[in-house]
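Appendix B, Record 12. Input sequence as logged:
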Amino acid sequence: MCLFFFERYRGAAPIYHAMLDGCSETGVSVITLDKQKFDVGLLVEQRREAIERDERYEQLSARLAERGAEALLDVLADLEPRLAGAVPQQGRASAAPRVSAKSGAVVWQAGVERLWRQWRALAGSFGVHAMWRSQRITLLQLMSPQRSRELSAPLVASRFTSAAPGQFFFARRANALFVYVGDAWLGICLLYTSPSPQTRHDLVCR
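Logged structural output:
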């Protein structure tokens, strides 16, 4: 059993890459095993699963594990006919190599949607981080893009005529740090500066 569609991604980290690429759905696949190669067996069963816009990797992977277990039990309950009806994989899948701490490095010019996907996919494992004054800043909690737009719009109108990627300001009423991410402002609710966890800053977004 594999927690992804073989037509879409193959490799060590398919769920991460589906989220990073902004896919609207993923799924689970039950395949036969090949003695010589990984991920090339016949497709026995596939089931689609939507990727919710605001959900994080941990939520999606847990749901896929449940769907995968259900699919596998259904196959085992009717194994011989299912194996007889297995079909070859179609199309050419995208590579889904391992992700690492480097995958969590923020590029402020990349845009709000990219950073939002990056945070949802990686914040719970490798972390999403940037450098500021020689300190590593880890973004622990972000405000959604929609909420960020709602809260930042009136504040930005009175403060800025233009902004550069990485520029930021603190909004006291929202109790959040807003950073310009290439195409819009995004709210940061919780962060800490490395190397000391004692420098963590808890901001309660409103």
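The radius of gyration is 21 Å.
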